[in-house]
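Need tokens for this chain, all 383 residues.
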Amino acid sequence: MTKNSATIADVARHAGVSTATVSRLINGIGPVSKHTEEQVRNAIRDLSYTPKRKRKSPSSGSESGSPPRSIAFLRIGDFNSTDRSPVTEHLVESLHRNADVLGCNLTVHHVPGLEGTDVRQIVGDAEGVLLRTSNIHEVTRESAAWLNRVPTVQVLGVSRCRRLWLDHVTPDNAQAGTLAAEYLIEQGCERLVFAAPTLICGVGLERCVSFVQTACEAGKDVRVLLQSGQSAADDGHYAFERDLAGFDVTCKVLKNRVEFTREIASINPDPFGLFIPTDLELAMVIPQLQMLGVDFQNGSHAIGCDHETRCFSGLDSMPATMDLHLENIAARAIRRLIYRIQHPNEPLVRIAVSPNVVPPDQVLASDPEATLAHTYSDMVGLD
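Here are the structure tokens for all 383 residues:
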């Protein structure tokens, strides 16, 4: 690595922390422990890293002396409880890499909600905002109104909702459900199971509905198994049942993780095909099912979503997964934000990036993040 060629992601890896932590320290926007600060500063020194805000970028028009464009990544919602997947962390890393290529300075912020929040005060002099919301804080007309003083692009979230108050770049979550069902059918599974260790909404529900539809259209026996901390909904019905109405599907809500895993393991006849819509949850469930006698090596098949290969590193039976192409999404989101800054009155658009299935024998061998040069070349002329 040559001097000044390091990126913020390189610093984070060298220091053993997240890119969000490095960003907070560099930009002075959040608390960092003394030990962590020392690790990061040592990494910056070791790699001869110069923060983007202190240097000029060829991509930003350095010949004219103009400074790099300043943009912000704003996370809204209670992600500690609703977004435990590493996806958001990987998205931040991808955004930082693409921001470097496009000559932008990216800062990262987190707020619990938009109501009563002065967005401009949070993002400072940023020219635009990349917005990531948890499922319980889906963007509405009212919440979008809080962002009307700064160009904004929503990143990730439901890909086929009818409302569009902001530009939106996201994986095609419905296609992810379809691909999961098709993969399990190709493996010869006659009984397909969608299982989520939580009650589903938003992205999870979108993946579930398309999974169920594809399985039913193929004439397969399909079940939806979810976990809830309560025995029944207040009115005796759950919200997801409305979206699955009309499909020949068996739905069941279990009280806890023990009942949840036992219900999956008791499916008869075995083998079956299992789709859990996040790799993090799938990696936790597979060992529990194996202890209950489910054979994922010579019988049943499993597939997750997100291509979080680190989640699978300790498994002795590798499942398939879905690559959402976060590097591609990050590049498109930043380029769309730059376009929105330059063309504030243009019509809003939604860009849905197609995922692809990664079979078990390629999960650990393949790189979930396409090379930046390839991704950037793919983006030229788009949007």
